[in-house]
Write a structure and sequence with these properties.
Chain lengths: 405, 405
């Protein structure tokens, strides 16, 4: 039975017979009832039957803490090769059946064949930017709502001057009359070109792709026609398959950045939902995200290290025939955290900052420079404090935010 | 400030100043930072600024039980008129910021104008079926995976003979070579026609609409061309906006039934996610669901009464200029529960059964008849036990499953 998808669940129950429960899931979510099937049909139904792989029971005296990690194999033949079908099969009804969390999915190579993953991936994006041996640096618009095109252009210009590789829209900047996507792509990429002429530095701008589901592809093409060289997308509010539809469209020839908006409704509970690693790591990469944003383990809005490392592994894992996704730990990032980020994530990471760029006393350009200097220092094996002695932007940043190294 | 969407959150924190926290959400999720805005810009930015409506603190000595219900008004001008934009605005980033659950959303009439809601609604569906003064009765295919067209047709025929008004696919029946949607619609509706010729009874068959997001409309049209008179849709695995795109498409001229698959990843935790009433009630109706399925408060997979009543109210509420959605409490329903269902939901409800139809000793036809008899009994004010004395199908059902009245 190689062509199956194995789902790992954590089931909580004070009293249940977990082996029996696992069996009832394996049968109930596939053929319905095995005993009701006539003997003459059993041979042909066997290939549709779910199978319990294993059950690991964690006994505990703490109330509500008795649980089991259960793995169940679902035959591929039961579902079509798309993420909605996979999720509905393994967790559609089951999600509503008591305290149960979906921890992991391990699909078959046959299922995998329907997905080509990220179109560019880490290597392709490094190629586009001409940056190979260091983390990438991204900054986010500070404030976007209510600003007009010239204000956005100016913000973009200041950020670009700091030496960042990527600039992204805020995820709450939707299609609006003041800064429609085609117009803001135009003015921002003019600013990018202007800076590139001065510095020789290339830059990707991820414009937020929003609006009605069935118009997303047209909207993406319009943005690309206007010059967009990357897109930001709130995947979870549209479903993974919308991302897959975008990433697998040959006309949508730019990297896609997946924003984790709404993810906190799904991953943080120990008892319900979907693990962060699966939700934001494995499934976003499968659906074709070139960049995967998630809360960093350091900042204001934090995610536990175990989860952020799980996402990182899912983004970089080489077991699957897919390009790698760039992990982008986000929120509360300042230059003093760069040593930790590189320690925890290596150089295949995007250092992503908002307040840590815009809150710099020398402005957004100075903020970007401070990050560039922090990255240089770490890669040279120098402490930030030492490096800051001859680097003004970093010096200011450390004075405000401190360092952790 | 009438054109706002008011979001209600439950925030948990042992120590936080909830008023301060509310203020930081209202500002942070709209203009970003008020103090950073130059004085000259403040007048023009005022219309984008979020506002704290009220904060109700629940003090408690129980650890982890100190919480506040906070209402925040978000100006409509900040987001486009679609559900992904609304959700990302009010809960995108915030969902990841500690223990916080989204309890409710109250959008403006301006926002509402972008939505026409269910295309048929309760009245339209009653009109189609010619059934006006009783609950509708639906049965679900017992087992679908691995069965061929003739087996499905036979199952359908048996269910139809029992006198049900609606038959729905199982939500895990995806596009597959054995029973592709166009073919199964054809054979099932032939069976429906055959029964109608005998009994005069009309029937809707909700075929499961699955596959790639960007092909859903074409797939729906193909099913309708083949004769489909209703569609089932796993909304949460595709996003609300896909449902809205389907329900607002003039060519998709059949009622849509929203299945709650995956909903349990979102509603059951007290600390995270989205309330069942909002998730499955208000938002599904806004997006255009003619039928809303959810776990019943009675059966095997249960939802608390408070939640099921919240969903019911959201489906039936007459404050909004939208047709009503049929509430469909599901799972574990047998004829003996019909008195409770009608007591709790009134007659504007669909009595929906799987095992309670197929597990009947007289077969699926007998199972349907038992439900029809149970409904008749309740509407006549007779106890099921009395009614069963002269009604064999109901008598058998009560012997197996008992009654609750």
């Amino acid at each position: 039975m190689s062509d199956t998808c194995v789902a790992t669940y954590r089931l909580y129950d004070d009293r249940a017979d977990f082996h029996k429960k696992a069996e009832s899931i394996a049968v109930g979510l596939t053929v319905g009832s095995w005993t009701d099937i006539p003997e003459t049909k059993k041979a042909s139904m066997q290939k549709h039957l779910g199978r319990v792989v294993d059950v690991h029971i964690h006994e505990s005296d703490v109330p509500n803490e008795r649980y089991a990690d259960v793995r169940i194999a679902y035959p591929d033949v039961n579902f079509s090769r798309d993420i909605p079908a996979l999720l509905v099969t393994v967790f559609g009804k089951l999600s509503m059946d008591g305290r149960v969390k979906l921890l992991d999915l391990d699909w078959s190579s046959t299922f995998q064949q329907a997905f080509s993953g990220p179109k560019f991936g880490i290597a392709g994006i490094r190629e586009q930017l001409g940056v190979h041996n260091r983390p990438l640096l991204m900054s986010i618009f500070k404030s976007v709502i209510g600003h007009d095109l010239s204000a956005l252009r100016e913000q973009f210009h200041q950020q670009a001057l700091g030496g960042v590789d990527l600039i992204k829209d805020d995820e709450i900047l939707f299609e609006n009359p003041l800064t429609p996507i085609q117009d803001r792509v135009k003015v921002c990429l003019e600013a990018a070109k202007q800076v590139e002429e001065e510095t020789g530095k290339k830059l990707l701008y991820a414009a937020n792709l929003t609006g009605p589901t069935f118009e997303l592809r047209d909207q993406a093409r319009r943005a690309i026609d206007a010059g967009a060289n990357a897109l930001l997308f709130n995947v979870l509010s549209y479903g993974y398959d919308a991302l897959h539809g975008l990433s697998s469209d040959p006309d949508i020839s730019v990297p896609i950045m997946a924003h984790p908006a709404m993810a906190g409704a799904l991953y943080p509970s120990p008892h319900y939902g979907i693990s962060a690693r699966l939700l934001l790591g494995k499934l976003l990469r499968l659906a074709g995200a070139d960049f995967v944003l998630f809360p960093s383990p350091y900042g204001s809005v934090t995610m536990p290290q175990e989860d952020t490392q799980g996402i990182r592994e899912a983004c970089l894992d080489t077991d699957r025939p897919m390009k790698q996704s760039f992990p982008v730990p986000s929120a509360g990032i300042h230059p003093g955290l760069v040593p930790l980020i590189i320690r925890d994530f290596g150089i295949d990471v995007v250092v992503n900052a908002g307040g840590g760029v815009h809150g710099h006393p020398l402005g957004a350009a100075g903020g970007g420079q401070a990050f560039v200097q922090a990255i240089d220092a770490v890669l040279q094996g120098t402490s930030l404090k030492d490096y800051a002695q001859n680097h003004e932007a970093l010096h200011h940043a450390i004075q405000i935010w401190g360092t952790k190294e």
